[in-house]
Design a protein that fits this description.
- The structure is a single chain.
- The protein has about 475 residues and is of the alpha+beta class.
- It folds into 4 domains: about 1-100, no CATH class; about 135-240, no CATH class; about 250-335, no CATH class; about 340-470, no CATH class.
- Helices cover about 40% and strands about 20% of the residues.
- It has 12 helices and 18 strands.
- The chain has helices spanning about 25-30, 50-60, 65-75, 95-100, 135-145, 160-165, 225-235, 275, 340-370, 380-410, 415-440, 450-470, and strands at about 15, 105, 115, 120-125, 170, 175-180, 185, 190-200, 205-210, 215-220, 255-260, 280-285, 290, 295-300, 305, 315-320, 320-325, 330-335.
- The strands form 4 sheets. The chain has an 8-stranded antiparallel barrel. A 6-stranded antiparallel β-sheet has the order 5-6-7-8-9-10, sandwiched between helices.
- Helix 9 (about 340-370) crosses helix 12, helix 10 (about 380-410) runs antiparallel to helix 11 (about 415-440) and helix 10 (about 380-410) packs parallel to helix 12 (about 450-470).
- The longest helix is centred in the last third of the chain and has 34 residues, at about 340-370.
- The radius of gyration is 27 Å and the shape is globular.
- It starts with 14 loop residues before the first strand and ends in a 5-residue tail after the last helix.
Amino acid sequence: MHHDAGWEDKYTDLFYLSSDDVKPLEEMLHISEPSQVNEPGEVVAYSNYGVALAGYIVERVTGQPFYDYVNEHIFTVLDMKDTAIHPSQKDNKDVAEKRESIHGYLVNENGEFSRSKSERIFIGLYPAGSAIGTATDAAKFIMALMPADGKNSSLFRSNQTLSEMLTTSDFYDNGLPRNAHGFWEGMYAVDVLEHGGNTDSFSSNFTFSKEEKLGVIVLTNQIAESGLCYGLPVLVYGEYEAEKGAEILPDSDKFEGSYMQARQAYVGFTKLMGVLMTGHLKAEDSHTFSMFDMTFKQIAPNVYQSTNEYNLLLHFTMSAGEVKKVSMMTTDMLPVSANKKLFIMISLLTAVISVFYFIASIILMIIGAIRNRKKAVAHTSVKKWNTLLTLSGGAALVNFVILAFRAYSYGSYASLMIHFWIFYAYILFAGVCVIMIFVQWKKAAYTRRKKISYILSCVMALLLSGLIIGWDLYK
């Protein structure tokens, strides 16, 4: 529940557009199983899979489906009649009916709202992100976590168990509290536990303070509404202020560099997404830097707070004068090594050149075919293989575009397999074409321009194959 088991994140088979695609939890865990990319306990990276695995453990221990167990031991006990947790709300018919009248929204750069085309999605790993209900029911749940003095929580036989569950169990490297058995330790003027989440077009955050006997629930029908979810509680609990000590605040320029979120895919075609989640830290002055289009101010040695309503705090862990990791509430960020930067730059340059070459070559081939449609043109064997090589490269690019679109539209991993086989076929076919071009090379005389054209086609095909292999586009 500390989300530090070391698993990568996965972007396929997380959301489905049809409830028919949702399988029993055990089967979903096999379908969605991620690779373990870090040693357990080393790096925090929020894991929906980990939460779902915890739910499956409940199933194995109790012999009940997780949603049945939650309904019997939480919802029914707390009289939460308007809440469901099954992905299609089949555990509560009234909620299932009301769900059809709910709409989710997207917002563009101009602040204009539009209905999400994927507002109705189904989560296979449903112990994460599928609870749906009213604010009144949510309040009943939070109240059960902070019973009045002298009263027992109806969720536990003993308040000692509740107290242990809400006690800090994980800390940042600087000693500040981070997690209490699955509840995140919010940074406010008072001690607060919280947990938020986002789906395709909804956002929420539950926060409560045991000492203040106060809770704040934020429910929105908008994707990534961090301003309300994390800014509104600050107005209630007060802004966090670090203890003022005699420590000298280090200069911000020592943290400059590029950082990737630990919560990302490391294996398979979706690892390309990690590049899009790279943040570039640039010092603005001795105690201020910018990253992710936000400004951060140093409030304690190696601790920075965003100056916007997101209330985002970053904790820097240093080792031998270098940044080891940057920690925020639900995930760590890791420095991008020089070799990784070089690989990304070379890949980007290669991709641009390859795309431009194959598109330009196909356009020129079409223009040439139109001009010569009434002429009898002799085609050498090398030219035929070169034409096939160029067309197959264009087909591979189209295949990538379709793969990206279908993955973005929540296509299941199984449904995307055809695209991986196409990449396999391209690599094999491109290899055959390159070999045949060189085999047939000496059987005819070519102009210098033709020779350069054929060599370029072979080189570009090899570069494109290298990109497919290097970025795991075949799996």
